[in-house]
Amino acid sequence: MANQAALVFNLLLTALAFCCITSASDPSPLQDFCVADSSSQVKMNGLACKNPATVQANDFSFSGLHISGNTANAVGSAVTSATVTQIPGLNTLGISMVRVDYAPWGINPPHTHPRATEILTVIKGTLKVGFVTSNPDNRLISKILRKGDVFVFPVGLIHFQQNVGHGNAVAIAALSSQNPGVITVANSVFGSKPDISADILAKAFQLDESIVRQLQWTF
């Protein structure tokens, strides 16, 4: 009986853990909406709600995705976000979107969204896109997209886009979080504050430490 009870207890623990893992995502709404109150000092997973009586239409809208981003930078791209920061009404709804502009041969460099899957559609131009699977395979899955084509980047995986057309390109992407976050690989590894020790990065990337220090200075 004791062994049977222990087995049942372990099965219950496993089921509970599985439920917790599979339901891990943005918090689900428990009311019609929970418009983010940016003035609140309450610290929580997400943002505190405004008084519903003070909510206005502007809390659910954003103007700006029709405006081209400034791609005059080192990577030749610009991201215009429409997340909970810009649209407070997205709080607890688990969705956001971005516009990405690309100069000719511009890139949205390898990066990851720790809290969101992304679905991207090309509005203008031709993009080379791809993502890399996790260890140990590290398989590159890549495709050329043209106007109207759609591609999905699974949550947490490193991915990129490159404009391979002759003119400017534009894409719109939706993400499965009000605050998907972004970790740009090069910036995070070589531009951390304080720096990751050069000897660690030299060994990880099999580079000379002088090259690592030069990369850290660049980022």
Describe this structure in words.
May play a role in plant defense. Probably has no oxalate oxidase activity even if the active site is conserved. Disulfide bonds join 34-49. GO terms for molecular function: manganese ion binding. The chain is of the alpha+beta class and 219 residues long. The protein contains 4 helices and 10 strands; from the N terminus they run αββββββββββααα. The strands form 2 sheets. A 5-stranded antiparallel beta sheet has the order 1-2-9-4-7, with no helix packed on it. The longest helix is centred in the N-terminal third of the chain and has 21 residues, at 2-22. It is globular, with a radius of gyration of 21 Å. The N and C termini lie far apart (63 Å). The model is unreliable at 7-24 (pLDDT under 50).
Order of helix and strand elements from N to C terminus: HEEEEEEEEEEHHH
Q: Can you tell me the residue ranges where pLDDT is under 50 for at least 5 consecutive residues?
A: 7-24
* Percent in helix: 10-25%
Shape: globular
Q: Please compute the radius of gyration using only Cα atoms.
A: 21 Å
Largest sheet: 5 strands, antiparallel
What portion of the residues fall into strands of 2 or more residues? 25-35%
CA-to-CA gap between the ends?
63 Å
